[in-house]
Amino acid sequence: MREGYEGTGPGAITPDGCAVELYSRLPVGAEPDIIAAAVPAGARVLELGSGVGRMTHALLERGFEVTAVDESAEMLERVRGARTICSPIEKLDLGETFDVVLLASFLVHAGDVEVRQGMLRTCVRHLAEGGCVLIQREGADYHTNVPRERVDPAGFTVRIVSAEPVGDGVDSVHAEYVFPDAVWTQTFRTRPLTREQFEEALGEAGLRVDRYLTEDRMWVRAV
Fold first, then answer.
1. Start and end of every Methyltransferase type domain (predicted)?
2. Whole-angstrom Cα distance, residue 206 to residue 192?
């Protein structure tokens, strides 16, 4: 396990506390449509932190060519129809470039600054000329609107139970996923970033915001 990360519940748990069985159950939301609207049709996509392939499979259905990267072999075993690579994102170097590099799941908020910097360098290293990086940020009230819960139409409840400071601007977030037949928890570290701090972090990696893709500014197109 990565330091400060923990997960409980049935099945395999990844180094960052994610439960493979849980993520196999979670439905995909509007993300594939947001991505498809922001990039050329049929683009080659490098998906960093693909997990079990929730977005991978939706992007494949929309005609994209996807290479899925995750540090968990158990997660990648669930991916179908895409090339898969097992590697920590911050250490990835494939020696090739892609039209689109995707860094979703709030990974840009890694508590460890060096990990975040490594992830963004990986994005730049694999970006083809004229390509773009799509990044998912946390919502503005993610760390302050706690506790909170959401009942999904699919019949399960997501609770963000707490977000507690652990020093150096990092919070320890505890989440619960309650299904009728099982409960999973995840504890992870995340660094809140204002819009200015986020854009500064991109600039350090040689990226800049091209545009925010959603009204809440959670999805970003960077070049």
1. 46-135
2. 21
Taking Cα atoms as reference points, which of 152, 140, 153, 127 lies closest to residue 207?
127
14: left (phi over 0), alpha (psi -120 to 50) or beta: beta
Sequence-distant contacts of 210-213: CB under 8 A, at least 24 apart? 210/132, 213/34, 213/37, 213/38, 213/134
Give the closest residue to 184 by CA, choosing from 24, 68, 2, 4.
24
The SS3 of residue 73 is helix
Asked if residue 72 lies in contact with residue 18, where contact means CB atoms within 8 angstroms, the answer is: yes
Distance CA 121, CA 58 (A): 26
Total residues found in the chain within this entry = 223
Q: Would you give per-residue pLDDT tens digits along the chain (223 residues)?
A: 889 999 999 999 999 999 999 999 999 999 999 999 999 999 999 999 999 999 999 999 999 999 999 999 999 999 999 999 999 999 999 999 999 999 999 999 999 999 999 999 999 999 999 999 999 999 999 999 999 999 999 999 999 999 999 999 999 999 999 999 999 999 999 999 999 999 999 999 999 999 999 999 999 999 9
- Structure tokens that stand for 69 in this block: 């990267």
